[in-house]
Every structure is written in C-alpha cells, then in structure tokens.
Amino acid sequence: ALCLLLENKSDDVLISIQHKLVEAYCWENDIPLLKVDSEDKVRKILSSHTDPNNNEPDDLSCILVKNADKMSSSESMLADFFDYIIKNEIEPFPVITLPE
Asked: Pairing state of beta strands 95-96 and 33-36?
C-alpha cells in the first residue's frame, strides 16, 4: 500500500492534528507515505478513474493506494525514493510537486 497525503498549507490546528494522525498510522503500519503539493493536480490525474455519475465532490486529502501485483517503473522509482527517505531519516517528509 501507499498513502498520498496533501501538503498541509492551512493554519487550522484540526487539519494539522489529522495529518499527524495519518502520518503516525502509516508509520506504525509500515505504509509508505508521500506528501503531494496540490489537490487539483491529484484530481486531474485521477479524473479518469472516478465515477462520472457521482455528483458528490471527492475528498482527496488522503488517498490509500493498494499495491498492484507488479509495479511499473514509475512505481518502483517511488518505492526507491521512499526507501531512501526512510533509510536516511529525512524529516519532515519532502513534498512532491506533481506535474501540471
């Protein structure tokens, strides 16, 4: 599994707490966590995978992705990036800037 978490750009304490809880959950359950910079970009990337009949806005603040049976080269690159962050104890987790 992989968790994508939006960068917290808010001063809202409740959102900060929610993000810390998600980070702690992922850490305790060995789920790689990647922070991304933009909900709009995530929405654009995932738009082909959403139900066109659903009129409710999707909450994309945190996304859990299950592993596929076989990883693509891009997925392998992300897994290697996460392993590098963990092995080198890089804190805080870097935020990945998604392409436009």
From this structure: parallel
CATH 3.30.1330.30 for domain 2-96, yes or no, is yes
* Residue boundaries of the structural domains of the chain: 2-96
Residues 6+ apart with CB under 8 A from 10: 16
DSSP 37: S
* Model confidence pLDDT, tens digit, residues 41-99: 887 777 766 666 776 667 777 888 777 677 778 778 877 887 888 788 887 777 878 77
pTM for the whole structure: 0.65
50: tokens are 């959403």
